[in-house]
Structure prediction request, 712 residues.
Amino acid sequence: MTDATLAAAPPSDLAGRPQDGPSLHMTEAARARLRRRYAADRRFRQAGLGAVVFGVVALGFLLFTILSNGLTAFRQTELRLDFAFSREIIAPDGKVDPQSIRAADWARVVRETLQARFPDARDRRGARLVEALVSPGAQGQLMDMVLADPRLIGQTRSVWVLAASDIDMVLKGHADRAVPEETRRVNDRQLAWMDALEKDGALRLSFNTRFFTGADSRYPELVGILGGILGSLYTLAITLALAFPLGVMAAIYLEEFAPKNRITDLIEVSINNLAAVPSIVFGLLGLAVFLNVFGMPRSAPLVGGCVLALMSLPIIIIAARAALRAVPPSIREAALGLGASRLQVVLHHVLPLAMPGILTGTILSMAHALGETAPLLMIGMVAFIVDVPSGPLDAATVLPVQIFMWADSPERGFVEKTSAAILVLLVFLLGMNALAIWLRKKFERRW
Amino acid sequence: MANPAAAVSAPDAGRAKISASGVDVFYGAKHALKKVSVEIGERQVVAFIGPSGCGKSTFLRCLNRMNDTIAGCRVTGDIRLDRGDIYAPEVDVVQLRARVGMVFQKPNPFPKSIYDNVAYGPRIHGLAGSKAELDAIVEGALKGAALWKEVSDRLDSPGTGLSGGQQQRLCIARAIAVSPEVILMDEPCSALDPIATAHVEELIDGLRERYTIVIVTHNMQQAARVSQRTAFFHLGELVEEDDTSAIFTNPRDERTQGYITGRYG
Prediction:
């Protein structure tokens, strides 16, 4: 009977609408709905692709700008001159010892050599102009030669010396020769001398070794990045040595041992908030506590490392806790069921399995610390330091601060040095990220 | 229902190995287990059966104090292993768990080699004085778990690379390598296929000669096949505990009868 009534009723869909004709999913309306769904899919994919393309283009533009500005910094202009190590300038009273050699008037050696090469520069203005061809670093280079071999005194040697940054810029094409003379840093007379040297083959571009062995300088042609690199390495070493063990131990305690109560909740909230505190606040803390209360040295990587460790700690703790939480509870149960103590469970099973995640988080936070500038400004790591630091207690600066200081300098020669330093920093960051990936892969291979 | 295993018993089988009386378990405010009293005889297989959420796994985890690790879990009452109160304050949980081993529902080998999986327990308890002794323990445990023939040539390969049934037998080998007195099994076959299940059941029957075994199972045929005594749990209560043959042929309580005949569960 019920069957009969069902058969008699016109077919309807579940909403009660009458259904005659083609199946519900084969109507024109259904096809239109399907088309709209596919169109939405397509729009979403295109938007995603657009975002990726935009990112790639922006990155490419950034790299192109930095490379085109910075690559020239790895080469520098040198000029060859026949230096006369005249006895009357270097050893006027006949004494030849390191002290008197250091005290000699090396600027005069350079000036007289240049004037001998360019006799038309014997007037006072010409002397100043011709001296400006050569970097002040040349004096030190000549002095070192004589210190190494005092027999050079009284002889003449052909030596490649560093050119001044202005000459360097002209030769590299960063300074336009066509602009009016009064707006140029290198005037027509200097250009003529340059051309004369070039014609003699006494002007060349060579690899800029000093950039990788020196520290900061007032002269763009004399600067080096090693001071910044070592400063960064000392700082990061301190940061890692402090933040990694503290962070991992705190994470293990909070995740594996701490009772879940109001105090641990409060600690958890505090850690999450600390991870979002602006970094300069940590710099202020370092200034107030490490420098003023503890009297630690100003500008030292030790203090910088402490400050960055404070900054990295919450990030490491959060990453380590997430990695520990991701270890399946079945592993903990298995070990506990065998009679392992809680410490053994953590050390033998949980920590090894969480290590890839912990290391990845740590290295990313280290990369973050490597690029950090603001907190270090507060503790005096922004100082002008011409010596390569020999330890974490020496005054030093770090790569990003060095970049900041060079970018702030008015000389044209610093533009390429800034970009070159950015390249060095990027290489370091890439290296650290590669290390993170390698470590993760290495530890993950232990199934 | 025939139960040939029940007929054969080890000499001292039946003496109470574990006795529990008036055990209550609370998870926070939830009263998960109500006044459970039961005796588990030595060198016997005792099966806990009952519908999901009836408290059988909870009770099992009281026997080696695995419930200690669950926040908010409270156990009252008296559980004795060889007449010693296992919840007494002076009891060392590590020692207790060495005496009462456990096999879990899902095979959970450590992500280490087969050898290291089995050797882990003896190592942390310092049971082997030399490498040779440890090798002997590992071999004995793997033989005891009927796995030796299959893995003796690849002890260094990862334990996680074995099949599900082999992994579970590896977990049993890992448990017996510590020479426990009691082995608790929490639905050891629920993640295994029928053939692997048959292997593990055969193994349990063999292990009865040396160990007291408590097994939680959803599968009533399994309880009938492997156990001598069966306890039926329902809504946190121990309804009935008796010889397995009696439970399955002539249950006293109608709830038990309803469950074993499939009316609910």
Remarks:
- DSSP finds eleven helices and ten strands in chain B.
- Chain B touches chain A through 29 residues (CB under 8 Å).
- The CA atoms of residues 58 and 111 of chain B lie 27 Å apart.
- The domain at 4-107+180-260 of chain B is CATH 3.40.50.300 (Rossmann fold).
